[in-house]
Design goal:
- By secondary structure, the protein is α+β, with helices and mostly antiparallel strands.
- The protein has 9 helices and 15 strands.
- The chain has helices at about 10, 20-35, 45-60, 60-70, 100-105, 135-140, 285-290, 350-360, 370-380, and strands at about 130-135, 145-155, 170, 180-185, 190-195, 205, 220-230, 240-245, 260-265, 270-275, 275-285, 295-300, 300-310, 315-320, 335-345.
- The strands form 6 sheets. Strands 10-11-15-14 form a 4-stranded mixed beta sheet. Strands 1-9-8 form a 3-stranded mixed beta sheet.
- Strand 10 (about 270-275) and strand 11 form a beta hairpin.
- Helix 2 (about 20-35) runs antiparallel to helix 3.
- The protein is elongated.
- The termini are far apart.
- The relative contact order is 0.12.
- Residues about 80-115 have low confidence and may be disordered.
C-alpha cells in the first residue's frame, strides 16, 4: 500500500538538511549495498534497491524535493492516496496567487507579468534516477547493461485517459474543459476577478464516471522496468549517463523527462585509473633488477613483453603509450604507467646467505652510488 511507504530521508539515512553532495554519497552507498549484482536472488535487497532509487529520484530533484517536504508522498506519487475523480494524477490545490491578482489588475501589460499556467496544459515529465555497477574493464571498453528503473508512465490499461475501457472522460460542465473558473477576491486594490483551479474536476477539465481499476482513474502509474543501457567506452566512476526521454511520462501530452544513470565502477586488483591513464606496480627480483630482464606486463588489451634495463631501481617507472583507457566520446587512448618494485628475498638458506655475502664482499662503492652519496652527506653534516 502507498500509505505504508517509508520516509525518503529515512530510506537514504539522511536528515532533511542534507546537502546535494551528501545526498549523492548516501545514495551511492545504499545503491551499492542493495544492488542485485551483489545480492543475487535476494528479494529483500531488490525491494530495498527499488526503494533507494525511488527516494533519490525525488530528493535529488529540487522541485520534487520541495513538494515532498511540503506534502509528503502525496506531492510526488500519483499512486498515493485516493484519486477524487480528477484526471491525469498529480497533486493539485488552490492556494491563491498574487501574480494572478496583479496580472488581472494590470492586464498583463505592466512589466510583462504573465498568468499562471493552465492546470491541464502539457507539462514535461520529471527526471528519474538509477544506478549501474561496472567492472573496471566494462567501464574502460564499454558494454551493454540492464538496469532496474522505477518511473511513472501512462497507464496501459486505459491509455492514460483514466477511464475504464469502453468509456471515456467527459468535459467538466463547470469549467467547460479549461480546468479553471473565475473567482472573486478582495485585495488591497478592491474586489478583483481572478482565475482559480476548478474544484469540480481538480483542474483536469474532465470528469471520469468510471475510473480505470488499474490506475484508480489517475491515468498514470508507477512501475519498475528493465532498461537496456549502452555504456560508452571510457566512462568513469561517479559520472552520469543521461537517457533523454527515459524518465517519467509527460502530463497532458507533454514530453517525458530524462533518466539519469549514476555509474559505479568496482576497483581492479591490478590497475588503478587516473583520468584516461592506467597505473600498475610490478614486482621483480633483485637479480632481474641488477642484470636486466624481459618481463610480462598485463594491460587492458592483453599481455605485452617489456625489456627492463640493467641496474633498474625500486620505484623506476616506464610508460606504455596508448595502452590506457579509451577517451570518452573521442578517439585515442591514454597511456599505461608501470612502476617497478624490487622484492627482497626472505627465508634464505644458509648456502644462499653465504653466496650473498660473497657477492657483497665483491662489490664496492661504484656499484652503490646512491649509498655512497648519502654517506658522504652524513659525514659533511657531522663534520667528520
Amino acid at each position: 500500500m502507498a500509505d505504508d511507504k517509508r520516509d525518503y530521508y529515512e530510506v537514504l539515512g539522511v536528515d532533511k538538511s542534507v546537502s546535494d553532495d551528501e545526498l549523492k554519497k548516501a545514495y551511492r552507498k545504499a545503491a551499492k549495498k542493495y544492488h542485485p549484482d551483489f545480492n543475487p536472488g535476494d528479494k529483500e535487497a531488490e525491494k530495498n534497491f527499488k526503494e533507494v532509487n525511488e527516494a533519490y529520484e525525488v530528493l535529488s530533484d529540487k522541485e520534487k524535493r520541495a513538494r515532498y517536504d511540503q506534502f509528503g508522498h502525496a506531492g510526488v506519487d500519483p499512486n498515493f492516496g485516493a484519486g477524487g475523480g480528477g484526471y491525469g494524477g498529480g497533486f493539485t490545490g488552490d492556494f491563491g496567487d498574487l501574480g494572478d491578482i496583479f496580472s488581472s489588475f494590470f492586464g498583463g501589460g505592466f512589466g510583462g507579468g504573465g498568468r499562471r499556467q493552465s492546470p491541464n496544459a502539457p507539462r514535461r515529465g520529471n527526471d528519474t534516477a538509477a544506478a549501474v555497477n561496472l567492472s573496471f574493464e566494462e567501464a574502460a571498453k564499454g558494454c551493454k547493461k540492464t538496469v532496474k528503473v522505477t518511473k511513472i508512465d501512462n497507464c496501459k490499461e486505459c491509455g492514460g485517459s483514466g477511464a475504464e475501457k469502453g468509456s471515456s472522460p467527459k468535459t467538466c460542465p463547470v469549467c467547460h474543459g479549461s480546468g479553471q473558473v473565475s473567482a472573486t477576491q478582495r485585495t488591497p486594490f478592491g474586489v478583483m476577478q481572478t482565475q482559480k483551479v476548478c474544484d469540480h474536476c481538480k483542474g483536469s477539465g474532465k470528469i471520469i464516471d468510471k475510473p480505470c481499476r488499474t490506475c484508480a482513474g489517475k491515468g498514470r502509474i508507477r512501475h519498475t522496468i528493465d532498461q537496456t543501457v549502452e555504456i560508452p567506452a571510457g566512462i568513469d566512476d561517479g559520472q552520469v549517463i543521461n537517457l533523454r526521454g527515459g524518465g517519467d511520462a509527460g502530463v497532458n501530452g507533454g514530453p517525458a523527462g530524462d533518466l539519469r544513470i549514476n555509474v559505479n565502477v568496482r576497483p581492479h586488483p591490478i590497475f588503478e585509473r587516473s583520468g584516461y591513464d592506467v597505473y600498475c606496480e610490478i614486482p621483480i627480483t633483485f637479480t632481474q633488477a641488477a642484470l636486466g630482464a624481459e618481463i610480462t606486463v598485463p594491460t587492458l588489451d592483453g599481455k605485452v613483453k617489456f625489456q627492463i634495463h640493467e641496474g633498474t631501481q625500486p620505484g623506476d617507472e616506464f610508460k606504455l603509450r596508448g595502452k590506457g583507457i579509451q577517451r570518452l566520446n573521442y578517439s585515442g587512448k591514454g597511456d599505461q604507467y608501470v612502476k617497478i618494485t624490487v622484492e627482497v628475498p626472505k627465508d634464505l638458506s644458509k648456502a644462499q646467505k653465504e653466496k650473498l655475502k660473497e657477492f657483497d664482499s665483491a662489490t664496492d662503492d661504484k656499484n652503490y652510488k646512491k649509498q655512497k652519496s648519502f654517506m658522504d652527506k652524513v659525514k659533511d653534516f657531522f663534520n667528520e
